[in-house]
Amino acid sequence: MEGQFQIFSGNSNLALANEICQNLNVPLGRALVGQFKNGETRVRIEENVRGSDVFLIQSICAPVNHHLMELLLMIDALRRASASRITAVMPYYGYAKQEKKTAGREPISAKLVSNLITTAGVNRVLTLDLHAAAIEGFFDIPVDHLRAAPILAERFKQMNPMNMVVVSPDTGGVNRANDFRERMGASLAIIAKQRPQPDVSEILEMVGEVKDKMAVIVDDMISTGGTLIEAADLLMERGAKEVYACATHAILAGNSAELIRNSVVKKVVVTNTIPVSAEQCNEKIEVLTVAPLLAEAIQRIHKDLSLSTLFV
Ligand code: R5P
Fold first, then answer.
1. Is the shortest distance between the CB of 248 and ligand 1 below 6 Å?
2. β-strand 41-45 against 242-250: which pairing, if any?
3. Could you tell me if the CB of 70 is within 6 A of ligand 1?
4. Helix (H) or strand (E) segment spanning residue 245
5. pLDDT digits over 292-304, tens only?
6. Distance 236 CA to ligand 1 centre (A)
7. Which of 9, 81, 147, 302 would you call most buried, defined as having the most Cβ atoms within 10 angstroms of its Cβ?
8. What tens digit of pLDDT does each residue of 92-110 get?
9. Which CATH fold would you assign to the domain 5-147+291-311?
C-alpha cells in the first residue's frame, strides 16, 4: 500500500506490541483503552487514522472476553475514523479450541469469534499457530497464518541435540510435530489421548521409539499443562533419556507453571504471543520473542510483498 502505516494495541500484550514497534522503528499509536465505571469497555483512538493502513495488535488471552471486546471496539473505532485498511494482528487467537461441536447443543465459538471480528470491520488478519488450521477458512477475508516453528526449532538446534525424537502429544498435532521433526532431522512419536471432560486429558497409547532419546514434545499451546505433563511422564516411563517441550502459546492457566516446575520436563520453550507473568516464570520456562517475525510480516503486508520467506 502507498503511504504510512500505524500500529495500535489493546491491553492484552503491550510488551509485545512495543517490541514490534521498536523492530519497525515506529511509535505505538495513542489510544485510550479502558473501562467505564459500569464495567463496559471504553475506547478512543487518540490520533488521526484517516486513509491510513492500520495494524491492531491484540491477543485474545485472559481475561479473554475482555480482550476480545477491546479488539472489537478498537476495530469499530478505527473503521468509523476512516482508516483505509485494518489488519487485526492476533498473535494468539482465543476460543480456537472450540472450533467444532464435540457434542450436541454446543456452539462453534471459533467461528462466532471470526464472524464478530469480520463484522466489526477488519480487512485482513495476521495470526500465529492457530489451534486448527481450518479456522483460517472461518474468515472470508485474507488471513496470513504464520508459524513459530522456525523460531522454536532454531532454539533447539542451539542445544546441539543428539538422538532426538519429536513427540506429538495428541493425534491432532501430528502435522505440527512432523514439521518440527523435519526441521530437526529427528524421528517422530505420536501419543493418542482423550479428554473425558474439558481440561482433563488421559493418554491412550503411544507409537514410536523413544528409548534413550532426547524427547521434545511439540504442541501449539500449554493451558492446564495436563497434556504436557502426562506425555512427559509416559516418555520417561518408556525410557526417554530426557524430556523437553515447546509450544507457541503459553496460556499457563491456574497453577500449571508450578506443575511444570515440579514435573520431569527439563525445559519448556514458549513464545511471547501471550505475556508470561513474573509469577508464572520459573527456571524451566524459557520465553522466545515473536516480535521480529510479526514486525517483518507487518512490513511485508503493508508493502504488498509475499510472506512465504517467513515460513522457511
Ligand atoms: C490440544 O488439542 C492442544 O493442542 C493442546 O495439547 C492442549 O490444548 C493443551 O491443553 P492442556 O495444557 O490443558 O492439556
1. no
2. unpaired
3. no
4. strand 242-250
5. 999 999 999 999 9
6. 20
7. 9
8. 999 999 999 999 999 999 9
9. Rossmann fold (3.40.50)
